[in-house]
Each structure stands twice: as C-alpha cells, then as structure tokens.
Amino acid sequence: QLQLVESGGGLVQPGGSLRLSCAASGVTLNYYTIGWFRQAPGKEREGVSCISNSDDSTYYSDSVKGRFTISRDNAKYTVYLQMDSLKPDDTAVYYCALSEYYSDYLCRSGKLFDYWGQGTQVTVSS
Asked: Is the dihedral of CA 22, 28, 30, 35 positive or negative?
C-alpha cells in the first residue's frame, strides 16, 4: 500500500531553517516526480517545489526560489525540502505528493499528483 508521511515541521523564528522529509512506502520512489505543496488558512494551495522522475530536474515557485532546496534519496525512499531564510509568509501546512509526470505547470497546479501525504505544519513567527 502506497503511503507518504511528512515530518520535520514546527515553529521557527523568521530567518531560521527547517528540513522537511517525505518518507514513501509501497512505491519505487525513483519512478515518480515528487512535489511539495503548501496551503495557508484562507489561501489556495500553492505548488512550492518539485523534483522530476527522469533527470532530477527541479521546479521552485518564485516565492521560495533561492531559499528552498529539494532533494531525493531513492535508497531511503525519502524526499527532502530544505527551507532556509524562512519568512512569516511561509507559514502553512506542507504536503508532499507523487506524480508520474513532470512539468512546471503540473508542479504549480498540483494536477496529476495522485498520491498525497497528510501534511506537516510549518509556523514562522517570532
């Protein structure tokens, strides 16, 4: 049974860092594009970052480019999102998801991401 479990969220001060993990089970991770998405209260879901299933191409939204880094360790069935220079606007529930496809549009929209984790809360506040 395919399962995704996010971890690593928490409370951090502005300017701080967190590393989120997405642990996958029941799936061969390197076959899939992995995306990180976030949703803040009262806001639409936002595609934050993706790493492709073919050549490890990456996508970052403009709001996190230069501050967040996505990586994957297929041997550990885990994808990471290193988040640096965090801002209060980064506060949201963060979700990881799997897709068989990759494009910037899909990473922005979340379309064709068929499997989702339960999410982990990230709060950036002083």
From this structure: negative
Instruction: Give tens-digit pLDDT for 27-77.
Output: 888 899 999 999 999 999 999 999 998 888 999 999 999 999 999 998 999
CA angle 53, 58, 64 (to 5 degrees): 140
Distance separating alpha carbons of residues 69 and 108, to the nearest angstrom? 16
Q: Which residues contact 69 (CB under 8 A, 6 or more apart)?
A: 81, 82, 84
Give 78-112 as a DSSP string: EEEEEE-S--GGG-EEEEEEEES---HHHHHH-TT
Which residue, chain included where needed, has tokens 């997405």? 22
Q: Which of 94, 92, 123 is nearest to 13 (CA)?
A: 123
Question: Is the CB of residue 64 less than 8 Å from the CB of residue 81?
Answer: no
The DSSP letter of residue 75 is G
